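During the no-cost extension, the postdoctoral fellow (Dr. R.K.) reprocessed legacy sequence entries with the updated structure-token encoder. One reprocessed record is reproduced below for audit purposes.
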Amino acid sequence: MYPLLAGMRIVECASFIAAPSCALQLQQLGAEVIRIDPIGGGPDFHRWPLSAAGSSYYWEGLNKGKRSIAIDFSRPEGRRLALELITAPGRDGGILVTNFPKDGFLSHEALRKQREDLITVRVMGWSDGGSGVDYTVNAALGLPWMTGEPEPGARPVNHVLPAWDLLTGAYAAFATLAAERERLRSGRGHEVTIALSDVALTALGHTGQIAEVLAGGDRPRFGNAVFGAFGRDFTSADGRRVMVVAITPRQWTGLVQALQLDARIAGLEAERRVAFDRDEGQRFIHREALFPIFEQAIGALGFDELARRFEAHGVCWSLYRTLGQALREDPRFALAAPLFDELDHPSGERYPAPGAPANFVGMARAPVVRAPRLGEHTDAVLADLLSLSPARIAELHDAGLVAGPGPTPSND
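Re-encoded structure tokens follow.
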């Protein structure tokens, strides 16, 4: 964590990945994030992966460093209390991050009646307000039909990484800062809506895929081959699978030299009247001729010798590992690095948790802060933001409108 946004106050009413990851990015750069949850937890409070005791590692990961207040949203009094917290006064407050419906009790129009300069950043599935998640947006845009082996009748292949959720969360954090910066200049509030579908569509447009389809039709499947360049998985003599990529001229020449294929590649270039070192697209066009050459060369070498040659020639490559193997074996992913802190989590378990991925050179990192227990900061938030007395807070508890934390789990 870095204290760059110290003083900024974000109220988060959200679940799942995109909106909570937006607020997490802001918290890890110093903003105060107050998360409002329904009593008992929202729809993602028990989302997998789970600890042996049933606590959500997912929830703990996305809510590090946030303050938690639990409110009964089902009652008008609880909804009014949430509204008061979101619109509480303060120059650096009045910022809501949410994925609640646009026309519900957290609509921007309802909230701005309480605070004219309110900033609402709303993450949506579809821009028309329809329900959508990463996997359905991917399916609708056709990406699973681009993924997998080019076999007749093959099923679509879903991706395990929720890319649009993560990209939308990061873009929402950027949009939040842009809206807050403009409010500092003009004093005006903003309603910002960000749909996963729009993030996905613009990403495909930015990377040329929309133009590609309009000009020539849908992209077919190419298996593990990297589209438009040289890249694929190969297997060493002792059965180790590696990913090898050559996009730049330097990567290509290094790979050819490492495998001592200069003469064979020169002969293929002369035969086909191409220069593979000058044009990455030619490496893709002629992949059916190139791949067997590299399969043979890589398959003739044991992994240790292959790794030695690749490193000596600056080849762009990686060994295929499981996540567990990567964490155990690759020092680049060491959990003891400054990026991580060992924490005692609300689940009662202790494990490393990551902070901000950006490294501000010359600035010390503050420690990573664990996720809260649900409702852990209920009383403090009510007192700090709304100046409620202990007696009034006790009345809210007695009425069941708010809740504090339950007992701390134990693994004993």
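The domain at 3-204+337-403 is CATH 3.40.50.10540 (Rossmann fold). The radius of gyration is 26 Å. The remaining legacy entries will be reprocessed before the final report is submitted.
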